[in-house]
Specification:
Helix content is about 30%, strand content about 25%. The protein contains 6 helices and 6 strands, in the order H-E-E-E-E-H-H-H-E-E-H-H. The protein has helices at about 10-20, 90-100, 105-115, 120-130, 150-160, 170-175, and strands at about 25, 40-55, 55-70, 75, 140, 145. Strands 1, 2, 3 and 4 form a 4-stranded mixed sheet that branches.
Length: about 200
């Protein structure tokens, strides 16, 4: 069987959607969800959102997660993230794994993802497809089920001016983030060592 060729437009939609999230900073806001006092910066780290393949070169799409610290209640607050709980890649990529796996075996879904320029191994595809996450909305594009989150991110990226970047809240909304009520403090009520 000959490998399936994907329309360049579909590959472009997926790449544009994922690149739109590159370098976006996610923060916990300015007030503590526990006591209402002002938050200060604590630390930040980069987290892989997606790994894209373009002409045998791999490029890492990363987001910046900035934790905050409340000097009043000594709590470290994690920012909202465009990731599902227990996953290591961005929510739109997980959505793509789940939508493809709903119509084909996991190994074929992994191969299709690779041909579309997104690196996800078949064991990860299987793990994400078998997760107990809620149903994701999909669209039929070129005979394939593509998540609405991918199409929405691509549309958002196409609507931005050259130097303009997407904002955190819009990305979270597109990635089906449950909302501010799910901020999870990273530590108990004890004062951390360090800054």
């Amino acid at each position: 069987m000959r490998p399936r060729r994907f329309p360049p437009l579909l590959v472009n939609i997926i790449h544009t959607a994922l690149v739109a999230c590159d370098g976006i900073r996610f923060h916990a806001g300015s007030t503590c969800p526990r006591c209402g006092c002002r938050l200060t910066g604590y630390d930040e780290r980069r987290k892989r959102f997606a790994l894209l393949i373009d002409d045998e070169e791999k490029s890492d799409i990363q987001v910046i997660l900035q934790r905050s610290y409340c000097k009043n209640c000594y709590t470290i607050i994690n920012p909202p993230e465009p990731f599902y709980p227990g996953t290591r890649i961005g929510a739109p990529v997980v959505d793509l794994c789940r939508s493809l796996s709903s119509t084909m075996p996991y190994s074929r879904a992994s191969t299709y993802l690779e041909r579309m320029g997104v690196a996800v191994d078949r064991w990860s595809v299987r793990h994400y497809a078998q997760s107990s996450l809620s149903e994701i909305p999909t669209m039929d594009i070129f005979g394939m089920k593509i998540p609405v989150s991918i199409v929405s991110l691509s549309t958002l990226a196409g609507s931005l001016q050259d130097s303009e970047r997407a904002d955190m809240d819009t990305i979270l909304e597109i990635c089906n983030y449950p909302g501010e009520s799910s901020f999870v403090p990273a530590a108990s009520d004890r004062k951390p060592q360090g800054p």
